[in-house]
Amino acid sequence: SFGEQRTESVRLVDLDRDGNLDLFFANIYYDEECVGRNCPAIPARNGGQVWLNSGDGTFVDTGQTLPGASGEIATPGDFDGDGDLDIVTLYYQANSNNVRVARLWRNDGVANFASAGDLLAYRADIETQGFAADFDDDGDVDLLVNAVAQSQRVWLNRDYVDVSVALQNASSQALAGDTVNFEIVVQNHSDRGVNGVALQLDSYEYLTDLQILEISSEKESTTNKQPGGWTQSFGAPSATVNLQPLDTVRFVVQAVAASGDNSLSFDGARLPLGVSIIEPNDLVFIADAATTAVAAGIPVFPRGDANIPTYRDSGQTLQSFRWNSQSVGDVDNDGDVDVVLFSLRGTRLWLNNGAGRMVFQGTYGSGQVIADGALGRLDDDDQLSWAVADNYATLWYRGPDVYAPTALRDEPVSSDAVTLGDLNGDGRPDVVVVSANAPGAVFLSDSAAYVDSGQQIPAGVDVAVGDVDADGDLDLVIASRTGLAKVLLNDGAGAFTEKPDAFGFDALNTLTVDLADIDGD
After folding, report:
1. How far apart are CA 307 and CA 304, in angstroms?
2. Which residues have C-beta within 8 Å of that of residue 400, sequence separation ≥ 6?
3. Is there a contact between 230 and 207 (Cβ–Cβ < 8 Å)?
4. CA neighbor of 433 nearest in space, from 410, 414, 405
5. Could you report the per-residue pLDDT of 227-243, keeping only the tens digit for each?
6. CA–CA distance, 296 with 203 (Å, rounded to integer)
7. Domain boundaries, the chain
8. pTM for this prediction
9. What angle do CA 17, 23, 29 make, to 5 degrees?
10. Under 8 Å between Cβ of 220 and 170
11. DSSP assignment of 461-489, as one string?
12. Angle subtended at Cα 181 by Cα 189 and Cα 202, rounded to the nearest 5 degrees
């Protein structure tokens, strides 16, 4: 039974590559520090769990427990590039001033998971959400996560960039008027070229006035003279250098210390804190990153296995008050992945420039409380529109210039989740809406409009579509906070019947559910 645990998210994906949709529960993880601080007793199975589909929509417990998968969200994706689906869980780090951590669980191909450590850490002042997609179109999986001040941050997967930075021959101390010399050696260890590498010196309080005279590169004999004071701001970068695989460049820096009180202390051991390597597409590699992170109060995890991705904060902030859910797709038909955020204050659209940089387009339904949303081609114009879980189950159709709303319900009913799928096999997406405190509804498309099918499906807080019984049509899985998770089998025409004992356990307190092929079968 899951009665002793609080399940935060559920994902249905093919984990063992057998073609069936499997199940991953991300449950609250109670660490030992939690005991005695109004936390529940630590359950016998403490963490995430994996259940495999027998092929008919019945799920079998693998017995695995993923400690630390506190389950504020579970995001599947092929993070290590080996062809199967791994899982990243985002969880709160105890006693850490709101630090959240993303932990990678690597799949061996048959749904046995092993922790590969933590990928990144960040501050978040609200419940953590996350989503995986290839935002910069480079073939690997990036992450979008909640951050502070009700905003979202894009973390780009930069595992193919393997660059080391070393400080050499640095002056240990300098008084006003003294010359300061040091060298920064940058080496590309990867099998791909790194273009547009430049040296940029950041200002820190202990270097309140350092005048850069010259930055030269031995590799291509480029020189960039930078007169003027360097005071509490970013210094101009050097000329750029392209690094071929296994290539090295040495930046030689000449500067002069200029302190008004003739007592400037220059500590060469601390200098790496102020060195960055800049690459196109907003990649920033920070020298001595672990030290920098400690100074900022955010841990950074070492690189290690070449198959484990390295994530860098792209620096983008996607503002959205209390982001509840997200959907991604090519909204503007330009070949890249755009982002739609659904929140307590409407829906916000961000278009991708093709390199992972998101450009805000506007807010739709401003002031509306949106619990969930889904992207899909709701009409015949080959444009992505979206459905939202609000009081009226509203569809937002894309017109020539704007999006216009159409309500599916005449009377208000609080909705918690919405999903799209071709439920009756006519080639058009249908709409399923569920509510925590009222029966859900199925709206079928008849090409001209969406019509309520009249079915009352079980109440729930999340719903997912997928063919769980391998009969060629899309079934439903409904998650509930207070009762059992439900599997509803489709008769092929969009009519649903509940499958009894689909899980063989009480799937209690489930907050979200998705369907996908977890085991690759």
Report:
1. 9
2. none
3. yes
4. 414
5. 333 322 334 555 667 77
6. 15
7. 7-159+313-520, 163-288
8. 0.69
9. 125
10. no
11. SEEEEE-TTSSSS-EEEEE-SSS--EEEE
12. 65
> Encoding tokens for residue 467?
């063919």
- CATH 3.40.50.2300 holds for 163-288: no
Q: What pLDDT was estimated at residue 422?
A: 96
The token pair at 221 is 């004999």
Identify the helix (H) or strand (E) that includes residue 434: strand 430-434
Helix (H) or strand (E) holding 295: helix 289-296
Closest to 511 measured CA to CA, from 388, 417, 439, 386:
417
Does the domain made of 7-159+313-520 have the CATH classification 2.130.10.10? yes
Cα angle 45-49-52, degrees, rounded to a multiple of 5 = 135
pLDDT tens across 173-184, in order?
Answer: 667 777 777 777
User: At 521, is the secondary structure helix, strand, or coil?
Assistant: coil
Dihedral Cα 499, 504, 506, 511, nearest 10 deg: -60
Longest dimension (CA), the chain: 84
Joined together, the tokens standing for residue 97 give 């001033």
* Bridge partners, residue 496, by sequence: 490
- DSSP state for residue 33 in the 8-state scheme: G
Of the candidates 171, 202, 159, the residue with the CA atom closest to the CA atom of residue 295:
202
Query: Under 8 Å CB-to-CB from 411, ≥6 apart: which residues?
Result: none
Query: Left (φ > 0), alpha (ψ -120 to 50) or beta: where does 344 sit?
Result: alpha
| Token pair belonging to 23 | 């199940």
Cβ-contact 7, 29 below 8 angstroms: no
First to last CA, the chain: 27
Match 């007793």 to its residue by tokens. 41
Low-confidence ranges of the chain (pLDDT < 50): 1-5, 32-33, 35-36, 69-72, 148, 159-160, 202-208, 220-235, 260-304, 505-509
CB 478 within 8 A of CB 456: no
